[in-house]
Design brief:
single chain; 17 helices; 333 residues; mainly alpha; 0% strand
Length: 333
């Protein structure tokens, strides 16, 4: 039925879209957004592209491009997301759609961050926050504060990261925005983990894990599970580690292999395989992660290269290990 709607709507040749066309385009936008939210990213993009070919009004076109940007982000297609996001931003400004513009600021910031363009990411986040404050849009102010906190965490600016995360959690809680409050709480746990305060990280993350799990939102669950599993691994808590790895396996079902959260869990799995002496399996997983990471800078390239080098050395492939480690150092330079 959806395909038939799109086919009929695209069969009108070169004339301007009618009121009926506009209604159909808006209906298809709603269906595409539902697909996006349910995790069917490729299905959402296919439907969005079909709807865009109908030449809908700029307001609808803008929202379609916003949805496509999010889907591309979740699939790890960062460069494509940047291109789509900038097109959406132009239409948001043209039509005066402030909510769409704020959404795109966040999406572009995430894409730039994952591509390693951290200065560009920070510009997007802060520009969006300034606009959100000016327009008294507390929802997007909280969302973008969360984004800035993640960026500062990855840069090692932990004090600034913690300030933004706590600000986001407090504001989201006051606004009864459960998802953003839980997301900010997960960031706080991750900040402790990155500072090697593993006991504190576990305490913080476990305190809200049941709430995060009850949302059924896989992206949020993986945001909790990644630092939680890393912390438990460092503490050597095998019992709880096994429990949360099973939770991670369930959360990853149906998600794209290029998803940031999935990649984080798979990196941990690779390390666990190495510690268990399962080197062939570890090498295969690391090769897969390196291939995926070229599109989605979810992890530092040199870190993955070093892990693969150590794996090769453990397998007795010293010459390959040396060449890869040399390449890793060159990447850092």
């Amino acid at each position: 039925a959806i395909a038939a709607l799109a086919a009929v709507s695209c069969s009108h040749g070169g004339r301007q879209p009618s009121r009926a066309d506009a209604t159909i385009a808006d209906s298809l936008l709603e269906i595409a957004a539902a697909r996006n939210a349910s995790g069917d990213k490729q299905g959402a993009i296919s439907l969005i592209d079909s709807t865009l070919s109908m030449r809908p009004a700029d307001t609808t076109r803008c929202m379609l491009l916003c949805e496509k940007t999010v889907a591309q982000l979740d699939m790890g297609l960062m460069r494509e997301a940047v291109t789509t996001g900038h097109e959406a931003m132009l239409l948001a400004e043209k039509t005066g759609n402030s909510e769409a513009a704020l959404n795109v600021y966040g999406s572009l910031g995430i894409a730039y961050r994952r591509m390693g363009m951290l200065d560009s990411a920070l510009v997007m986040y802060k520009s969006g926050m300034e606009r959100a404050v000016k327009e008294r849009d507390s929802e997007y102010e909280v969302y973008l504060a969360n984004c800035v906190s993640v960026l500062f965490t990855e840069q090692g600016h932990y004090r600034q990261a913690m300030d933004y995360a706590r600000r986001a959690e407090k504001s989201a809680t006051a606004a009864h925005d459960t998802i953003e409050a839980l997301s900010a709480h997960a960031t706080i746990g991750a900040i402790y983990m990155w500072q090697k305060q593993y006991h504190q990280a576990v305490r913080v993350l476990e305190a809200r894990w049941t709430d995060a799990r009850s949302t059924g939102y896989n992206v949020l669950m993986l945001k909790y599970l990644s630092p939680l599993i890393k912390s438990l691994s460092m503490l050597g808590d095998g019992r709880r580690l096994s429990h949360y790895m099973r939770e991670a396996d369930r959360a990853m079902q149906g998600m794209s292999a290029t998803s940031n959260g999935v990649l984080g869990i798979l990196e941990i799995k690779a390390a666990m395989l190495g510690s268990e002496g399962k080197r062939a399996e570890q090498l295969a997983l690391l090769d897969s992660l390196l291939a995926t990471n070229r599109a989605n800078r979810a992890m530092p390239l040199e870190k993955l290269m070093r892990q693969k080098s150590e794996c090769l050395r453990a397998m007795g492939r010293d010459a390959e290990a040396f060449r890869l480690m040399d390449s890793a150092y060159q990447t850092l330079d």
